Amino acid sequence: MALSEVAFHTGVGDKIGYCCRLLRKAYRQQARMVVAGDAEMLTRLDQALWLFDVRSFIPHRRLAAGQAVPPALLRTPIWLMEPGARPPVQGILLNLGPAAVPEFESYERLIEVVGLDEADRLAARRRWRAYEAQGLRITHHAQEGQ
């Protein structure tokens, strides 16, 4: 399956809260997602997902580099993927990191969440230009500090 869309969500004041809302929506729509980011960001997201919505659980699993996935867990819809990990699913890729995710083209869609800090915005601009240079269709969703 080829990548059909790259969506940038920019101006996000609370990246963790915003991602929790995106993941809840994806789960309710029965989408399969992989979230890529550094270990610290994924730890914060993992903890937030457990507390985010007390009325509903958002099933997710963390995946470290080199970690094997037991067959019984393959149905898990949301995977928090540390750098170097091999995701067990393809679907929608949510990137929280500063660089493009290796093999991002193998996903159906790519969502880039960009915060307010200058380093995050500059890294996102580099990714945008790289995606554009590859001829990918990019959509932009500007937030107002959400």
Quaternary state reads single chain
What does the overall shape look like? globular
Helix and strand composition category: alpha/beta
Helix percentage: 25-40%
Number of strands: 7
Strand order of the largest sheet: 3-4-2-5-6-1-7
Helix and strand sequence:
EHEHEEEEHE
Tell me what you see in this structure:
The protein is an alpha/beta fold and 146 residues long. The protein contains three helices and seven strands. A seven-stranded parallel sheet has the order 3-4-2-5-6-1-7, sandwiched between helices. Helix 1 crosses helix 2 (39-51). The radius of gyration is 14 Å and the shape is globular. The relative contact order is 0.28.
Topology readout:
Blueprint: E1 5-12, H1 15-28, E2 33-36, H2 39-51, E3 60-63, E4 78-81, E5 92-95, E6 109-115, H3 118-133, E7 138-142
Parallel strand pairs: 1-6, 1-7, 2-4, 2-5, 3-4, 5-6
Helix pairs in contact: 1-2
